[in-house]
Amino acid sequence: MLSAHSKAHVDCVSRVLKNASGLPQAPVPAPILDSWRRSEQHRLDPGSLQGPRILDQTLLKECRERAELFLRIASEEVGRLHGQVRGADYCVLLADAQGRTLDYRVDSAIRSDCRKAGLDLGTWWSEGEEGTCGVATVLASKMPLTVHKRDHFRAAFIGLTCSAAPVFDPQGELLGVLDVSAVQSPDDRRSQTLVRQLVAQSARQIENAFFMHSAGGHWILRAHAAPGYVDSQPDYLFAWDADGRLLALNPAARRYLRQRFGEVPGHIAEVFDPDALRAAGDGVAQPLLGRGDAPALYVRLSAPPRQSRPVPRVAARGAELDPRIAEHLRLAVRVKDRNLPVLIQGETGAGKEVFARQVHEASARRGKPFVALNCAAIPESLIESELFGYAAGAFTGASSKGMRGLLQQADGGTLFLDEIGDMPLTLQTRLLRVLAEGEVAPLGAARRQAVDIQVICATHRDLAAMVAEGSFREDLYFRIGGARFELPPLRSRSDRLALINRVLEEEAESCGEPVGLSAAALECLLGYRWPGNVRQLRHALRYACAVCAGGVIQPGDLPAELRGGRLATGEDAAALASDPERQALLDALVRHRWKPGPAAESLGISRATLYRRVNQHGIEMPGKRRGC
Questions:
Q1: Which of 163, 371, 380, 611 has the greatest number of CB atoms lying within 10 Å of its CB?
Q2: How confident is residue 569, by pLDDT bands cut at 50, 70 and 90?
Q3: Locate the Sigma-54 factor interaction domain: which residues (predicted)?
Q4: Within 10 Å of residue 54's Cβ, how many Cβ atoms?
Q5: What is the pLDDT of residue 568?
Q6: What are the distances in angstroms from CA 417 to CA 337, 456, 467, 577?
Q7: Are 164 and 178 in contact (CB under 8 A)?
Q8: d(Cα 368, Cα 610) in Å, to the nearest integer?
Q9: CA distance linking residue 414 with residue 458, whole number of Å
Q10: Would you say 562 and 540 are in contact if contact means Cβ atoms under 8 Å apart?
Q11: Cα separations (Å) of 565 from 311, 572, 623?
Q12: Binning pLDDT at 50, 70 and 90, where does residue 309 land?
């Protein structure tokens, strides 16, 4: 039985939909009324109190991995926006182009109330299932708007206020939706005007950041009607290649060109005089006249970097990378830029996807998409549609608009197939044809479509043995293995210390508090054999950051399996730490990042003496391999 509030809402929605055409002015804004009509066509019940659909953890992880670049670029602005609205008890959601919430910021004090109201990570806001709501209505209208309280179609959400804005990529495709929502707010919709403006501004900042990332290596023109905003808040962004072909535009520049020319020109010379463009260098912002009678814009022109192939940066914050991985990376970039496929092998958790992303970012295709698919992470029945996409109406339950597969999404860039050894044989045949012919046929499509992709594959399996037993195609094995690289396990890497420090910094930053490592805890980490490799290291440090007290991780804060060796208990660690000479050695080595020379100098001893005392006290130096 409906509550009084729900019944009143159902009556209101029904009355408005029945009589809207005869009213001089609808009681709700036009985009809301349009969405109500679509919701009715979807045969949704406005009295329903059921919460939104929530993704299972496997699918959520896959969606987040697929949108990794978007999430990484948007993360800082999402956090900044939350800082602006958190004091008024708003939460911030970032959804992908299908309406799936992939990033979510909320204060712990209101987290429970938000979750009960349907605001949480993994919620799926599609208009076909949830009706009129902030994310879904923006996906349909592609413009910023507020869905305030009883603007929602379903009674489950009439307590919420949601202000949202679309985020577009440089080609004009929808990347996702940025949304700010609250469980409680004044009844007057006008109370959300400022919030909607903040959301729209943040969405624009994310678009511009995505543009600058995608346009790296090309000519870039920043433009604004006023000279003081050209660098900090440019209205228009244009990017073109050495031949003058327009490659990327932010949404404002795309609208500007359509208003002036009726369509988007293909060449920058159709928009601005080339001689005038050349005069607009990297100096102060200066006026530039457009073709025809267009008013002048203040602009700054940035030339592409001179070096044709950048030196890959593979070790952040000055950390030294294991020489074997650094050499693998150098060679992988060279062969990839010569259109040879790359096969990465190594134990589970050894960092194969991180390596693949580094290869892509250092390659000539760094400004193009990096699209990843974990062949072992999603059901076999879904891999084909995910990889190849499908045409409208290809099968029961298919989207009415069809779906672009990952092969098409990676066009011009890199497709990373993780755990390629888990790909079914039938799909191996289809993939081989794509790699051989450069064409893809979506499910149910009548025509094949050309794609330009480079493939990086990874596996922990012995593919040669799988070929011998008939579970992996021999021709595909040789097709994807143009260059093969074996990543060493974490236990044998010489950069373990640097990696531990880097992962700890990232996890500490994620939890919002500075966290350090005690010497005894660090020794536990350095002495452990890491069967789960880098992934296990990250999970261990994430756990330690969550449970440690006082901002310093002690051995007792580490997962139990890490304390199973010679530092099995807190008493053992305390006994070792009680030796003043041993502790002084550890303190000096940790302070000087385990560099023997500076550590010995700070202790007033020679390097030979330092090494002798290190051996006496059973301290293992990073990079020294255990004899086992």
A1: 163
A2: very low
A3: 322-546
A4: 16
A5: 36
A6: 18, 6, 18, 46
A7: yes
A8: 50
A9: 13
A10: yes
A11: 41, 10, 19
A12: very low
* C-beta of residue 381 within 8 angstroms of C-beta of residue 429: no
Are 342 and 529 in contact by the 8 Å Cβ rule? The answer is no
pLDDT at 628: 28
φ and ψ of 434, to 5 deg: -60, -45
Show the tokens assigned to 574. 């305390």
User: Which DSSP category does 159 fall into?
Assistant: T
What is the C-alpha to C-alpha distance for residues 274 and 244, in angstroms, rounded to an integer? 9
- Helices 30-41 and 134-141: angle between axes, nearest 10 degrees: 100
Distance CA 180, CA 256 (A): 28
Q: How far, in Å, CA of 220 to CA of 211, rounded?
A: 10
Residues 6 or more apart whose Cβ sits within 8 Å of residue 427: 383, 384, 387
Residue with tokens 């990839």: 336
Burial class of residue 173 in the structure, from the number of CB atoms within 10 Å of its CB (0-12 exposed, 13-18 middle, 19+ buried): exposed
Do the beta carbons of residue 430 and residue 388 sit within 8 Å? yes
- 572: part of which helix (H) or strand (E)? helix 570-577
pLDDT at res. 62: 85
Q: What is the structure's pLDDT at 316?
A: 35
Amino acid found at 272 = F
Q: Is the dihedral of CA 96, 102, 107, 113 positive or negative?
A: positive
Q: Is the pLDDT of residue 382 over 80?
A: no
Q: Which two tokens stand for residue 268?
A: 């920058």
Helix (H) or strand (E) holding 486: strand 483-486
Euclidean distance between CA atoms 376 and 349, whole angstroms:
14
- The region of weakest confidence among 20-24, 224-228, 240-244, 407-411 is 20-24
Least confident range of 199-208, 271-280, 335-344, 564-573 = 564-573
CA distance 91 to 195: 12
CA dist list (Å): 145 to 81, 142, 149, 260:
17, 9, 13, 26
Distance CA 165, CA 185 (A): 19
* pLDDT for the residue numbered 277: 78
Question: Is there a contact between 401 and 389 (Cβ–Cβ < 8 Å)?
Answer: no
Which residue do the tokens 């949830």 mark? 130
Task: Give CA separation, 601 vs 44, 580, 598, 604, 605, in Å.
Answer: 74, 18, 5, 5, 6
List, for residues 79-137, the tens digit of each pLDDT value: 999 999 999 999 999 999 999 999 999 998 999 999 999 999 999 999 998 999 999 99
Q: Which among 317, 313, 621 has a CA at the least distance from the CA of 496?
A: 621
CB neighbourhood size of 530 (10 A): 21
Q: The tokens of 375 are what?
A: 């062949």
| Closest to 261 measured CA to CA, from 287, 235, 293 | 293
Q: What is the pTM of this model?
A: 0.50
| Helices 251-261, 193-214: inter-axial angle, 10-degree rounding | 90
3-state secondary structure 78-123: HHHHHHHHHHHCEEEEEEECCCEEEEEECCHHHHHHHHHCCCCCCE
Q: At what angle do helices 380-388 and 425-437 cross, to 10 degrees?
A: 10
Alpha-helical (H) ranges within 363-495 are 380-388, 406-409, 425-437, 463-469, 474-480
Give the confidence band of 576 by pLDDT, cuts at 50, 70, 90: very low
